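Hey team,

Filing this mostly as a record. A colleague (T.K.) asked me to run one chain through the structure pipeline before their review meeting, and I want the input and output archived in the tracker in case anyone asks later how it was produced. No errors, nothing strange. Just documentation.

Input sequence:
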Amino acid sequence: MVPTSKKNDAPLSEWTISQSYASAEACQSAQNKNRDQAAAKLKTYDSMTDKQRRDLQHNQASLDQEMADSDSFEAAFQSDCIATDDPRLKEK
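Output structure:
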């Protein structure tokens, strides 16, 4: 599950289910993979030269992808594995 806004302090009942898994272990494995991929992309961006970043900003398709990646980065690092019977899901 991921927060519906940039604030991850919202109650779980307001979070969005991004994916379902058969077990907690499968969820945690996917979560770790997503976080590793996001960290690798951030590392790549950090190693770019200023010229490469400027070129990226002038290429709309790349810029659109960068914005999508930005959202997925946040989701990767703010996500949490929650059981379907977690009582916090019913809180209002």
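Quick notes for T.K.: The CA atoms of residues 3 and 10 lie 7 Å apart. Residues 12-81 form one domain.
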